[in-house]
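We treat protein structure as text, and this decision shapes the records that our systems exchange. This encoding replaces a full spatial description with a residue-level series of whole-number codes. Below, we set out a record of this kind in full and without editing:
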Amino acid sequence: MTGLDVRLPVETERLVLRAHRATDLDDLLAFHSDPEVVRYVPWPVRDRRATAETLQVKLTQTELIAHGQWLVLAVELRSTGAVIGEVLLKWASERQGEVGFALAREHHGRGYAAEAATAMLRLGFDDLGFHRITAVCIEGNTQSARLLTRLGMRQEARLVDNVHFKGAWATQLVFAMLEDEWRSGDR
């Protein structure tokens, strides 16, 4: 198996999706420590120390060498240089990926998550040659489910009590898009 050629940064109209930097700590802390932001993501509310430890891992998640790896990029606002979130692309298996995202609460509702997630779909399909990309969210995370639908992903499954999530069983919603659906632009 050969690694995938990921070219960074990925730029959009308003965002720069780039490798994390050690100087991103304060910006990351702003949303890693927000209970509303982390409510539906797999990590707990983090203090400065825990965010710094996590950032050390993120600094290494800049390439896709083997199946199962996550590419984790900072979402930087072009106008200010501030990191307002993170976007992820997993190389799940042969020509398959998974996308994810989290943004600071004060930047919700402005289209940044859609812009960043679309860029990751473009990276997966157009640059890396993926055939299929999925996204999974916890039922109840209506904002993410709506966004995934707007991106053109279809809900394929509702997995009842499929994961033990933050101390309780949770139902997961699985969304997906195929390469030909991406190319048709029917979004």
Observations:
- The CA atoms of residues 148 and 175 lie 7 Å apart.
- The beta strands are 10-11, 15-19, 70-77, 83-93, 96-103, 132-138, 154-165, 168-178.
